Model the fold of this input.
Amino acid sequence: MSHPLEPIYALQKKDRKLIKLMRELRDIPQRKSDIEAQLSGSKKKLEMALDSRKHTEATLKEQELEVASLKEKVTKYKNQQMEAQTNEQYRAFVKEIGTVEDEIKALEEKEIQLMENLESGKAIVAEREEKLGGEKAGIADELAELDERAEYLQEKIEGMKADRNRAAAGCDKALLQKYSRILNNKKDFAVVLVEPGGHCGGCHMKLPPQVTNDARNPTKIVACNFCGRIVYNPPERG
Ligand SMILES: [Zn+2]
Done:
């Protein structure tokens, strides 16, 4: 009679290939984000340039409002000056107006500086946008390749799963459950061959002769005493 582990052992070969591809597929998003992370330095620099430009714009806006309100003040003082009753009052307004006009002048000088800053800030933003754009184009091919690979793997895995399920249908149910449980636990193999010299093919410990013999017997399913993997000793091995 054929050994019940024979179809299980064949299934394991399929499952191992399947698991390998599933892991590769699972890791693709991480690989993509690793590649994208290379852009983070340039993204950060662009963000900083944008922040700095925004800050300059806000300061400029504030100063413009400030100048407008000081100009209103001057107009108000000039009106009051015309209504001055005494020379003393008149001179006081001249002094006030002079002070405010000096403030306006200082602010307008600062404005010129700020506008220059804004121009160079805009140039820096443009330069950094261009650099980031170049880097994005540089990694686009790599990302596209990974997307293609993921698509290929997805399809391949589906086909392999169907094939694997057909193979599983030909296996003993209880044995299949046991196999799945061990494979989930061990991640590499659930069924291992007895190595020459009577060693477990999983953990390489020396198996008791009884286990080695039983591993050949189609009516018995035995596990390695050390690692718990099912040991199989097919007689017709080259
Ligand atoms: Zn073992």
Notes: DSSP finds five helices and four strands in the chain. Residues 200, 202-203, 205, 224, 226-227, 229 surround zinc ion (CB under 6 Å). The first helix runs from residue 5 to 37.
